Amino acid sequence: MKKVSKNRIIIFLGLIGGLASWPLLELVLSMQASFSNFLLFFITATLIPGLFMGLFMGCGEGILNKSLSRTLKGALIGLFAGSVGGILGGFAGQLLLSSMIQYFPESTSALLLTTRTAGWALVGLFVGLSEGVRSHSFRKMLLGAAGGFLGGAIGGLLLEILSRYFGSSIPRLLGLVLMGTMISIFYTFFDKKFSFGVIRVLNGSQAGKKYRINQKSMDLGSGNRTMIFTDYDGVNDKEIEIKVDKGVITVIDEKIENNLYVNEKATNKTQLKYGDVIKAGSVKLLLEAE
After folding, report:
1. How far is Cα 122 from Cα 142, in angstroms, rounded to an integer?
2. Global pTM value
3. What is the structure's pLDDT at 2?
4. What pLDDT does residue 259 have?
5. CA 169 to CA 176: how far, in whole Å?
6. Cα-flanking dihedrals φ and ψ of residue 209, to 5°?
7. Distance of CA 20 to the CA centre of its chain
8. Distance between CA atoms of 224 and 141, rounded to whole angstroms?
9. By CB distance 3.0 to 4.6 Å, which of 121, 207, 222, 254 could disulfide with 153?
């Protein structure tokens, strides 16, 4: 059976995040009159999509690696990051609107569209940050933030246009789905565009699966690592490391008994090139260009 690609799973989760946020957002919109001020309403309406999109997209790596602990941790971090983005996005959008309307009092509609779009871009930025935070990778945080920001801006603009000019719950639903999809599309685009290559599994239960090298340091093992091989013999936890320094990819064996091989030659540390075959325990891996 053909394995579903990482990109498709992440994009699907972004879409589901947008879809899941719709019922609660509609409830909040129906209760607008009960809010004590417009700022609080504005922030709440921005918080909800950020919360759900962060929650679902944060699960991505854990689902891909079939790791319950990573899924739960990613979901919690994504939920928190998306919520922070929603609060800051709502507050920043309203603050920006209040500041700009003093200078352009006749352009309220255009300003509202612009400032709300800026708020959604901030939501996307924080949603994109979450996986980098979970994996303690500053590089992934930067790439995720860049992709999330662009996706949030484009998706948020579409959401605002559909909400304001078609004025009903169904167009809003479509807008939320589009925004979640745009955030995840741009997130995966940056993740792929700036990767150093991919590690493809050649044998066993994960044959054909690919791990993208998108961090400066990735480890391979049987525990809750970057690359998880619990169902392979002789692969102990956190003993093999893939490092990237100035574009040079190196594989390192922290313990001699792991029996690391590159192109059938035993090694403890070797600079890799595309096409090299790595063997650690019973798992065989191929380094490929993206």
Report:
1. 14
2. 0.88
3. 43
4. 76
5. 10
6. -70, 145
7. 17
8. 20
9. 121
Q: Determine contact, residues 46/87, Cβ cutoff 8 Å.
A: yes
Cβ atoms within 10 Å, residue 288: 14
What pLDDT is attached to residue 194? 92
Low-confidence ranges of the chain (pLDDT < 70): 1-4, 222-225, 237-238, 256-258
pLDDT for position 110: 86
- Tokens for 106? 């006749």
Q: Is 284 within 8 Å of 237 (Cβ atoms)?
A: no
Q: Tell me how long the chain is.
A: 290
CA distance 152 to 187: 10
Residue whose pair of structure tokens reads 């490929």 in the numeric block = 288
- Sole residue written with tokens 């997209």: 57
Question: Using an 8 Å Cβ cutoff, are 83 and 54 in contact?
Answer: yes
* Whole-number Å distance between alpha carbons of 92 and 112: 12
Contact between 144 and 191 (Cβ < 8 Å): yes
pLDDT of amino acid 256: 60
3-state secondary structure the chain: CCCCCHHHHHHHHHHHHHHHHHHHHHHHHHCHHHCCCHHHHHHHHHHHHHHHHHHHHHCHHHHHCCCHHHHHHHHHHHHHHHHHHHHHHHHHHHHHHHHHHCCCCCCHHHHHHHHHHHHHHHHHHHHHHHHHHHCCCHHHHHHHHHHHHHHHHHHHHHHHHHHHHHCCHHHHHHHHHHHHHHHHHHHHHHHHHCCCCEEEECCHHHCCCEEECCCCEEEEECCCCCEECCCCCCCCCCCEEEEEECCEEEEEECCHHHCEEECCEECCEEECCCCCEEEECCEEEEEECC
β-strand pairing of 198-201 with 265-266: unpaired
